[in-house]
Amino acid sequence: MDFTDNRLTRLDNFPRLQRLATLSLANNLIESFDTANLSKNLPNLTALTLSYNRISTLHQVANIGKACPKLEFLSLVGNPVTRRQHYRLYAIRSIPSLKVLDFTRISPSERDTAQRLAQSAAGAALESDVQQEKVSSKTFTPGEGQSAQESFQTSFTKEQKEQLRDMVANAKSPAEIEQIEASVQKGVFPSHLLPTKEAQENGGGAEVAGRSSRKRSADEAPTTTNGEEANHKKAKK
Fold it and tell me: Contact 193/176 with Cβ under 8 angstroms?
């Protein structure tokens, strides 16, 4: 499956793809992954191309290992993380199933070196840095870590839930349903998919401006009418 050049920022919300083995995601803006989603829905992924994205931490490299336990080929060429000290050895240690990293086959001596690094003081210091990256990356995102069903139950009002059901029932394509589900999972109401009138009511700002404009017009209209009526009376006299 090829998603090259799509400006994706995060790997998440994959449907169940039991037989998918190869995933190409080069030239995007990817910084992070939904580890649980990938491990559950892409269980047989063996080749992953992430060249020229924005992966910058070793913590995310470790997440790839957790998400893809059968991964044999990985490319992170062009990502900031490749400039980190001990990057290659850390990746080899974190993803034991790997056979090829950044288009270079992993040798037995590299595996031995990665193992020795992990057991050394330098490896302990490196792991400490990775754990700090993990803590720093835990910023709050509404709905993060929840399924769409859990987020639906906890993140929306009764009225919004009814609107979401109507949106799914009236969706024009499977892609539109996926967009709705992705927004719901993140705890974000997809107002951009509502019919125009409802979207304006939910959006607020544009509607308020419109009401203000209509109010000014309504206030001005009687003034003009009263003036015309006064002139008419004078003409009669």
Answer: yes
Nearest to 23 by CA among 43, 36, 31, 9: 43
Q: CA-CA distance, 237 to 172, in Å (whole number)?
A: 66
Q: What is the pTM of this model?
A: 0.57
Q: Residue by residue, what is the 3-state secondary structure of 90-159?
A: HHHHHCCCCCEECCEECCHHHHHHHHHHHHCHHHHHHHHHHHHHHHHCCCCCCCCCCCHHHHHHHHCCHH
Query: Measured between alpha carbons, how far is residue 20 from residues 28, 46, 65, 68, 209 in Å?
Result: 20, 9, 17, 12, 49
What are the pLDDT digits (tens) for 45-57?
999 999 999 999 9
User: Residues with Cβ < 8 Å from 82, sequence gap 6 or more?
Assistant: 76, 102
Residue 1: C-alpha distances to residues 60, 135, 153, 162, 225 (Å):
22, 32, 33, 35, 67
Length of the chain (residues): 237
